[in-house]
Design a protein that fits this description.
Elements (H helix, E strand, L loop, with lengths): L2 E12 L2 E12 L3 E5 L6 H8 L2 H4 L4 E9 L4 H6 L3 E4 L12 H8 L20 H13 L5 E5 L10 H15 L2 E5 L12 E4 L21 E12 L2 E12 L17
Parallel strand pairs: 3-7, 3-8, 5-6, 6-7
Antiparallel strand pairs: 1-2, 1-4, 9-10
């Protein structure tokens, strides 16, 4: 394997606030690298710096140290279309009104996204479906360096291992580089050739106040036989539920199962 990414003593700050400090790293072609760290540790900033988005599109940042990707600066790699970035905010990167239109604009073959309804309005796809679509689009864009931001926040836990097995195969076959930032690496770390922990030099600890137990005998929400459909397609079917005062309710389900609805 040949080294294609070299990071030497990278530090980033904005308005005098240090976000990243003294990061040095080498990445070879065909590697899947995971960036770990708690929320707010600088994972997204790290990806945006590597892909040239900072400081090209986000002003006010000061970037110190040296980064070489394919022998170029990150912003040069960005302009050449050699990098792709999958953001946390899935709604901020779309141009077309449907996935098929988006793929046509980007010049990507629609066969990359066989499990996505390509003719459905983007506004009607679930968060997880949109993220999968962005992920597939990045992988098949022709980019040789792909940064993926917080996939576990969008892809349900039934699917995430399957998705990353596919990414691992893609990286091995195409000799691309994929860098994934996520604060939940228990599942993903087995796919990673390297793990960077941004918390190593920035550890902080906090304690949580005790929670007062609330009275839970009073029913404040009652749902009975709820059905929801859209354009003839059933989204929710026969849901009944009671919620008591002081209860925290978790709604779980696969991407596209109707949780947001």
């Amino acid at each position: 394997m040949s080294r294609v990414v070299a990071i030497d003593n990278l530090s980033v700050e904005i308005r005098g606030r240090e976000i990243l400090r003294g990061i040095s790293l080498e990445i070879n072609e065909g590697e899947l690298v995971c960036v770990a760290g708690s929320i707010g540790s600088g994972k997204s900033t790290f990806l945006k710096v590597l892909t040239g988005i900072i400081p090209e599109l986000y002003k006010g940042f000061r970037v110190y140290g040296n980064i070489s990707i394919f022998g170029l600066k990150p912003v040069e790699v960005l302009h050449k279309g050699l990098v792709a970035y999958v953001p946390q905010d899935v709604y901020s990167f779309f141009i077309g009104s449907t996935p098929r239109e988006e793929l046509a604009i980007l010049g990507i073959d629609s066969s990359c996204c066989s499990d996505i309804d390509l003719d459905k309005d983007i506004d009607h796809l679930s968060d997880g479906q949109l993220y999968r679509f962005l992920l597939y689009s990045a992988l098949f864009s022709g980019a040789k360096f792909i940064a993926i931001d917080e996939p576990s926040s969008h892809i349900d836990w039934w699917s995430i291992e399957e998705v990353f097995r596919g990414i691992e195969r893609f990286v091995n076959d195409e000799k691309t580089i994929v860098v994934v930032a996520d604060h939940k690496l228990d599942t993903l770390k087995k796919f990673c050739s390297k793990i960077i922990d941004l918390d190593d030099s920035r550890r902080s600890y906090c304690s949580f106040p005790s929670i007062t137990t609330l009275q839970r005998s009073k029913v404040i929400v009652e749902i009975e036989n709820i059905w929801v459909s859209y354009n003839g397609k059933s989204i929710l079917r026969d849901i009944s539920l009671s919620i008591n005062l002081g209860e925290a309710i978790a709604i779980v389900g696969r991407n596209g199962s109707g949780k947001t609805t």
